[in-house]
Amino acid sequence: MSGGDFTADGFAARIAAHLVDDAGLLPAVAPFGDTTLNPGLAPPARLRDAAVLVPIVTHPGEAGVILTQRTEHLASHAGQIAFPGGKIDRDDAGPIETALREAEEEVGLDRADVVPLGCFPPYASNSGYRIVPVIGLVRPGLRLFPNPGEVADVFEVPLGFLMSGANHRVGNRVWQGRRRYFYEMPFGDRYIWGVTAGIIRQIYERTWGRGAPPAPGMPAPGEATPD
User: Fold this and answer.
1) How far from 148 is each of 44, 69, 72, CA to CA, in Å?
2) Whether 108 contacts 146, CB under 8 Å
3) Strand runs (DSSP E) across 35-108, as ranges?
4) Checking CA distances to 98, which of 49, 92, 135, 161 falls within 20 to 30 Å?
């Protein structure tokens, strides 16, 4: 792929056909999620609605993607890499408002500096959330202020790194007596995995196609997934 594929304008054009309006989005069944790599895993009976912002930084040339590292003291997903986001409040007009509000609260990203392009189909997590990724364009050079109660660090990853199947792997570990599989995308000393990597993989598969995984730990086509 050429470098031009990873400009903000190129990405916006490529993803446009896959975006949906947030009106009436949440009742939809999430087509992608933790069960994608774990088909024998029953999803939670009820999913709570959440949204995350996928901030695409409009650098000249290759775009960047803003990610956060959660603080170690949080009750869930402590220390993990994540997009800014959270539960959709009753007062929120929809996923876009939630994503913009949470990004403002978590990293000080003023919603006036974000141009929302639309919503990606939701991702179902086994932790009980139906997560709507909101794609937004962010101008470069903004100073961000991580909320120390939630965010330990904010950093950028080149869009081309995340949208290259060669950088995607499938990891696994035993959890609650069963082996679970998940996407992972190590980036330097950062370890992107789990739901965040799953959302990135979902965007990649719909916009650039399939590549890389299945990988070590995954069964060959036609074989049953190990427990």
Assistant:
1) 31, 11, 11
2) yes
3) 48-57, 64-70, 81-82, 85-87
4) 161
Within 10 Å of residue 216's Cβ, how many Cβ atoms?
A: 9
DSSP letters, 96-159, are HHHHHHHHHHHH---GGGEEEEEEPPPEE-TTSEEEEEEEEEE-TT------TTTEEEEEEEEH
What are the backbone dihedrals phi and psi of residue 157, each rounded to the nearest 5 degrees, phi first? Answer: -125, 135
Tell me the two tokens of residue 132.
């709507």
Determine the Cα angle at 187 with ends 182 and 193, to 5°: 20
Cα gap 64→93, rounded to integer Å:
28
Please tell me whether the overall predicted TM-score, pTM, comes out greater than 0.85 for this model.
Answer: yes
CA 89 – CA 175 distance, rounded (Å): 30
Query: Phi-psi bin for 5: left (phi > 0), alpha (psi -120 to 50), beta?
Result: alpha
